[in-house]
Amino acid sequence: MSFPAAASQLPVVFEDVQVRAGAVVILDRISLRITAGPPTVLIGPNGSGKSTVLRTAMGLVSPSRGHIRWVGAGATDAIRRALVFQRPVMLRRSTAGNLHFALATAGIRRQHRRSRAIELLRLVGLEAVADRPARRLSGGEQQRLALARALARDPEVLFLDEPTASLDPEGTKAIEEIVRALALRGIKIIMATHDLSEARRLAGEIVLLHRGLVVEMGRADTFFAGPSTPDARRFLAGDLLV
Predict the structure, then answer these.
(1) What is the pLDDT of residue 1?
(2) What order do you get walking across the sheet with 205-210 strand by strand?
(3) Are the beta carbons of 184 and 3 closer than 8 angstroms?
(4) Which of 217, 216, 192, 213 has the alpha carbon at shortest distance from 202?
(5) 139 has which bridge partners?
(6) Helix (H) or strand (E) holding 186
């Protein structure tokens, strides 16, 4: 399967990045380079630093040391990056109203918002609940709406933080289908998940984190066929990394 070249934002480069919270080291001087192509999936035990990598790349967390550089030709256009949180907050509006607000925030002209909202609702399969209060949607529907709101920015890079956590199989399948469709459109997906089966289904590239360190990074097929580090082999075997 071939993927369109992403976007002018990439690559994003972490150079000796450390993130601390007081005396606690969350990311421990990591260096990595994420390029265009199929989804990059971050895996690792709880507390390994997956979410912090996403937030730091988005500029929501400042490194205690080191640098993050977006070095693509269009890297100064930060609005072309978006992040969907594990537990997104729904506005006290309808499903469509949430989207209209996101489109307004993204600078979409009023006369174009309705057609764009319809397009996004169709993409995530929420046309039938456009008028329903967003806070009355199911967990899976709310996550799909959060994806649609992120897409209002027309992102070239989309960060997803555990997007299927706590969803049932049907909700998980719906999110994964959207992720695949977005990747095929050339949007770079950088995603954290605790679910190894999901990582196998979606990833083109794997980054394994443990205790804020990058344990292993490489092509997903190579990683799952034969990881090169002892920690990665134990993790894939189901052992606890401590």
Answers:
(1) 35
(2) 81-84, 157-161, 188-192, 40-43, 205-210, 213-219
(3) yes
(4) 192
(5) none
(6) none
Question: What is the C-alpha R_g of the chain?
Answer: 18
3-state secondary structure of 114: helix
The pair of structure tokens assigned to 114 is 């309705």
By the 8 A CB rule, do 183 and 191 touch? Answer: no
Helix, strand or coil, per DSSP, at residue 205: strand
- pTM of this prediction? 0.94
pLDDT in tens, 211-236: 999 999 999 999 999 999 999 999 99
In a domain, 40, yes or no: yes
Buried-state track 148-179, b at ≥16 Cβ within 10 A, e below 16:
bbbbbbebbbbbbbbbbeebeeebbebbeebb
Q: How many domains does the chain have?
A: 1
Is 127 domain-assigned?
no
Instruction: State whether the Cα torsion 110-140-87-202 is positive or negative.
Output: negative
Boundaries of domain holding 83: 12-89+155-236
Q: Domain holding 229: CATH number?
A: 3.40.50.300
Token readout for 212 is 């804020």
Chain mean position to CA 211? 20
